[in-house]
Design a protein that fits this description.
heterodimer; A: 193 residues; mainly alpha; 9 helices; B: alpha+beta; 3-methyladenine DNA Glycosylase II, Chain A, domain 3; Alpha-Beta Plaits; two-stranded antiparallel sheet; 11 helices
C-alpha cells in the first residue's frame, strides 16, 4: 500500500511531469520563469493550490457527480469549484496569515486559471484514484511543476549572461531550453520499480 | 430528465460556491487604510524604485505609516507631492522634479580617440576590460548602458555621447547607477546651466584629449555673481541652489564646456 502511494508521488512528480511530459501549465511555466524568486513563489503557491484542489475535486466526484451519473459534467464543475476554492483560500490567508499571503502574492489568483490544476483533477478521476491517492498525486504533480519551473528559471538566469545570436534572443532560446529539458525528463520514462 | 438533474446539480453547486464566497468575503474582510489606496492612486505606478522602496505599493504604505516624506516620489515631483499632501493632510514641502544629466560632451568629433577596446558593446564590460575606449579616462564610452536601463526610453547615444531627453526623463536614477563612469547625475529640471565634463585632470592634459573639456581655469568662478560655480579638483561644479541661470559663466568659458538655457544659446551664436 505504502509502496503504491510513494509510486504515485514519484510517478506524478518526475516520470509524468506535468509540464515537461504532459505539457500542461506551459503559460506560467514560460511566463514566470524569468526570475528565480518569482518561480519559487509560484511553485509553492501551485503546490498549495493543486493539493487542496485535487482533494476537493476527488471528494466532489466520488460523492456528488459519480452517484448521480453526471460524469460528463466533471470538467465544468471542477472549473467552477477550483476557481471559487482558490478565491476562498486567498481571502482566508489574507486575514489569517498575512505572511503566507505576502509570500504567495499575486500568484494565488493567477493559478485559478492554470490548466495544470484542472488537468490534475481530471487525470485523478480518469485513473480512478480515491481521495488519499488524489491528494498525493496532486501534491506530486505540483512538486514536479515546481521542480520544472525552478530548473528553467536557473537555466534562464544563465542564458541572460550569454551573448546569444540575435535570432535566438528572448523567447526562442527559452523554448529550446524547455524542449531540451523535456527530452531529458523523457528519460525517466524507463524507470521501473 | 438527465438535463433537469444536471442543471439542478450545477445550479446547487454554483449557489453553494457563491454563498461560500460571499460568506468568506465578509468574514475574512481585511481593512485597508483608505489613505493608502488613495496615495497609491496618485503615485505614477512606474514601480521604478527610485524612492528607495520596492515599488509604488510599498511607497504608498510607507507614506501612510510616516516612513517616507509626502514628496518622496522623485518621478511624480511637485504635483504628486501636493496631491499626496492633501490626502495626508499636511503641507507639501516644495519638491522639484529632477532629471538626469550626462556630464560629458566628448562626441567623436571633439575628442581624440585611439581606443584599443575590442569586445562586448557594453559600458560595464569596457570598463572591466581595462582597455581604452576613449582617450579621456573620464568620458562617456557611448555604448549606452544607460540607454538600455532607461525605462522611459529617454536616453539616446548620439555620436558617441549619451543624451538625456529632459521631457521624457522621469528622474528615476537607474542610469546614474548603470553608468560605470559615474557621469550621470540628477539635476533640478529648471536648472539648465551645468558643466558638461567630468574630467578632473589638469588643463593641458584635458586639452590633449578633448576640445570641449573643463580645464579648471576658473574663469566661470570669476564671472559668477552668485557664488554658484566653483572649481573643485580641476573641475568646475555648479551649486544649483545658488544658480540663477544668467549664463555668464557659460558665455565666458574658453572651452564651451558649460551648457546654457535655450535663450542664451542664441546669444552665444551672436557672440
Amino acid at each position: 500500500m505504502n509502496h503504491n502511494l510513494l509510486l504515485i508521488i514519484i510517478s506524478s512528480a518526475i516520470i509524468n511531469n506535468v509540464v515537461l511530459n504532459q505539457f500542461l501549465g506551459i503559460c506560467s511555466f514560460l511566463g514566470v520563469s524569468k526570475q528565480m524568486k518569482a518561480s519559487a513563489s509560484l511553485g509553492v503557491a501551485v503546490i498549495f493550490v493543486i493539493t487542496i484542489a485535487s482533494g476537493v475535486a476527488s471528494l466532489l466526484y466520488d460523492y456528488v457527480l459519480a452517484p448521480l451519473g453526471l460524469d460528463f459534467m466533471k470538467t465544468i464543475v471542477f472549473i467552477l469549484v477550483i476557481a471559487a476554492l482558490v478565491q476562498i483560500v486567498e481571502m482566508f490567508l489574507k486575514k489569517k496569515s498575512p505572511a503566507i499571503y505576502k509570500a504567495l502574492g499575486i500568484y494565488l489568483p493567477l493559478i485559478t486559471t492554470n490548466c495544470a490544476v484542472l488537468g490534475v483533477a481530471l487525470t485523478n478521476v480518469q485513473d480512478g484514484y480515491n481521495f488519499i491517492e488524489s491528494v498525493l498525486s496532486g501534491f506530486g504533480t505540483a512538486v514536479g511543476y515546481t521542480l520544472a519551473i525552478v530548473l528553467l528559471a536557473s537555466i534562464r538566469s544563465r542564458i541572460r549572461e550569454e551573448d546569444l545570436p540575435a535570432p535566438l534572443r528572448g523567447a526562442p532560446i527559452v523554448l529550446i531550453s524547455a524542449a531540451l529539458m523535456s527530452i531529458a525528463f523523457m528519460g525517466f520514462g524507463g524507470l521501473s520499480f | 430528465m438527465t438535463i433537469l438533474i444536471t442543471t439542478l446539480v450545477i445550479a446547487v453547486i454554483g449557489l453553494v460556491v457563491g454563498a461560500g464566497l460571499v460568506y468568506t468575503g465578509k468574514k475574512f474582510e481585511v481593512k485597508v487604510d483608505e489613505r493608502e489606496s488613495a496615495v497609491r492612486e496618485v503615485l505614477p505606478g512606474n514601480n521604478c524604485g527610485a524612492c528607495g522602496f520596492a515599488g509604488c505599493d510599498a511607497m504608498a504604505a510607507a507614506i501612510v505609516n510616516g516612513d517616507a516624506p509626502v514628496g518622496g516620489c522623485p518621478v511624480g515631483g511637485a504635483p504628486v507631492a501636493k496631491q499626496i499632501a492633501s490626502i495626508m493632510g499636511v503641507d507639501a514641502e516644495a519638491v522639484e522634479r529632477k532629471v538626469a544629466f550626462v556630464r560629458c560632451a566628448g562626441s567623436c568629433e571633439v575628442t581624440h580617440n585611439q581606443g584599443n577596446y575590442i569586445g562586448v558593446m557594453d559600458c560595464r564590460s569596457a570598463v572591466l576590460s581595462g582597455l581604452n575606449v576613449t582617450d579621456c579616462a573620464f568620458g562617456c564610452l557611448g555604448f549606452g548602458s544607460c540607454a538600455t536601463v532607461c525605462p522611459q526610453d529617454a536616453i539616446q547615444v548620439k555620436d558617441g555621447v549619451a543624451f538625456v531627453n529632459r521631457k521624457k526623463c522621469v528622474g528615476c536614477g537607474l542610469c546614474v547607477k548603470a553608468c560605470p563612469k559615474g557621469l550621470i547625475e540628477l539635476v533640478p529640471e529648471s536648472k539648465r546651466v551645468s558643466v558638461r565634463c567630468s574630467n578632473h585632470d589638469r588643463g593641458p592634459l584635458v586639452k590633449k584629449v578633448c576640445a570641449v573639456g573643463c580645464i579648471g581655469c576658473g574663469v566661470c568662478t570669476r564671472q559668477c555673481e552668485h557664488d554658484a560655480i566653483h572649481v573643485e579638483a580641476g573641475l568646475a561644479q555648479v551649486t544649483y541652489e545658488n544658480c540663477v541661470q544668467c549664463g555668464k559663466c557659460a558665455l565666458k568659458c574658453p572651452m564651451k564646456a558649460i551648457t546654457l538655457p535655450p535663450a542664451e544659446y542664441m546669444q552665444r551664436e551672436a557672440v
